[in-house]
Amino acid sequence: MQEVNQMLSSTSVDDKGGNQFKKRDALIELEAKAQKKWDTLKVFESDAPEAGTQEFEDKNKYMCTFPYPYMNGRLHLGHSFSLSKCEFSVGFERLKGKNALFPFGFHCTGMPIKACADKLAREMELYGCPPQFPTEESSNSGVEKKSKIAAKEGKYEL
């Protein structure tokens, strides 16, 4: 921690703007050092001991899962909020000496994937593969706008 404070305190920006990226560069250098140390110590690797061994019986276990994001949905802030809580708890339990496991994957079965496949099939029928999208000049500009009432009652035709 002392090294971090020393690096950051020595990175002031002068009035001429010559050192404007010095603090950023110091943080990038610090990140690279930390990642190298983590790789050397294998901090984020977890090998499960064999079942039936004394190590397996002695070591406390901890597992955390994350609700998988659907592949046809978009990631949003809620995903990172939930994910950060899982990552923190797994890291904390690992620091306490537990054999912590955090499996992560993506959900790619069921109705959301079917809906996504159907949408892609419709788009391929409409625009071809590879797609040839219509230009603005060739689109139907003479088609009337449909009102909400007509749309609800199904009284419009293209």
From TrEMBL:
EC number of this enzyme: 6.1.1.4
This protein's UniProt keywords: Aminoacyl-tRNA synthetase, ATP-binding, Ligase, Nucleotide-binding, Protein biosynthesis
Domain Aminoacyl-tRNA synthetase class Ia: 35-119
GO biological process, one term: leucyl-tRNA aminoacylation
Domain of life, per lineage: Eukaryota
Pfam families linked: tRNA-synt_1
Keyword DNA-binding: no
Keyword Ligase: yes
GO MF terms held by the record: ATP binding; leucine-tRNA ligase activity
UniProt-annotated stretches for the region Disordered: 132-158
Family: Belongs to the class-I aminoacyl-tRNA synthetase family.
PANTHER family xrefs: LEUCINE--TRNA LIGASE, CYTOPLASMIC, LEUCYL-TRNA SYNTHETASE
Name of the protein described by the UniProt record: leucine--tRNA ligase
Organism: Sphaeroforma arctica JP610
